[in-house]
Design a protein that fits this description.
Shape of chain B: elongated
Number of strands of chain B: 10
Strand content of chain B: over 45%
Structural class of chain A: alpha+beta
Oligomer: heterodimer
Helix content of chain B: under 10%
Number of helices of chain B: 1
Strand content of chain A: 25-35%
CATH topology of chain B: Jelly Rolls
Largest sheet of chain A: 2 strands, antiparallel
Order of helices and strands of chain A: EEH
CATH class of chain B: Mainly Beta
Distance between the termini of chain A: 61 Å
Strand order of the largest sheet of chain A: 1-2
CATH architecture of chain B: Sandwich
Number of domains of chain B: 1
Order of helices and strands of chain B: EEEEEEHEEEE
Helix content of chain A: 25-40%
Largest interface: A-B, 18 and 17 residues
Number of domains of chain A: 1
Radius of gyration of chain A: 17 Å
Distance between the termini of chain B: 19 Å
Number of helices of chain A: 1
Radius of gyration of chain B: 16 Å
Chain lengths: 50, 141
């Protein structure tokens, strides 16, 4: 296994293991998609007037 | 000729760590022309059912990957658990507070443009997930 890295946004890289470049490219794509999809969002709180 | 308007005081930025598998390292770096003062942060680690003792390690490295310091290494976290870890300029760590709330007291750390803040889960599994927020002061050089 070799170590690879992918930039998922400016200033952030993820480092991971893969057996070859082909697998690394596939993983890198998944990691980037997951990173963008799973960003924690602030809990929405709605102010109500009474 | 162009001018760049620089606010010397910098700006407060919250960097978000998206849900990331436990066997993947996250590296944050200011990038060209910027410096960071790392102020505080929270990391949440959710572990899968795999038997292993995980711990979160927060390291600072230079551009050549030389280890400059380790800011903290958490206690072991076992399988199928969900914990939050906090770090910041906390000077008081009470006898119960440390174990219950998992606070690491660190002073603000200066990162130069190519320095790196590296988050690693020791014994992290593919089914583990970590996420969090890190508060920094970003200053243009």
């Amino acid at each position: 296994m070799k170590r690879y890295k992918v930039q998922v946004e400016p200033q952030v890289e993820l480092e991971f293991e893969a057996k070859d470049l082909r697998e690394a490219k596939k993983k890198a794509k998944e990691l980037k998609e997951n990173w963008l999809k799973n960003k924690p969002q602030p809990e929405e709180v709605i102010t109500v007037e009474v | 000729m162009s001018f760049t308007w620089i606010f010397q005081g910098g700006r407060r930025v919250i960097k978000t760590i998206s849900n990331t598998a436990g066997n993947v390292l996250t590296t944050l770096s200011p990038g060209s022309g910027k410096r960071w003062l790392v102020l505080m942060g929270t990391i949440r680690l959710q572990t899968d059912a795999t038997t292993a003792d995980r711990s979160i390690i927060l390291r600072v490295k230079d551009s050549s990957n030389n280890l400059l310091t380790t800011l903290f290494r958490s206690d072991s976290q076992t399988a199928s658990t969900d914990s939050y870890y906090y770090f910041g300029p906390t000077k008081y760590v009470g006898s119960n507070m440390d174990a219950v709330t998992r606070i690491a007291g660190i002073d603000p750390i200066l990162l130069d443009e190519n320095d790196k803040l590296v988050i690693e889960i020791s014994n992290g599994q593919a089914g583990d997930t970590y996420s969090g927020h890190i508060v920094i002061l970003e200053v243009d050089m």
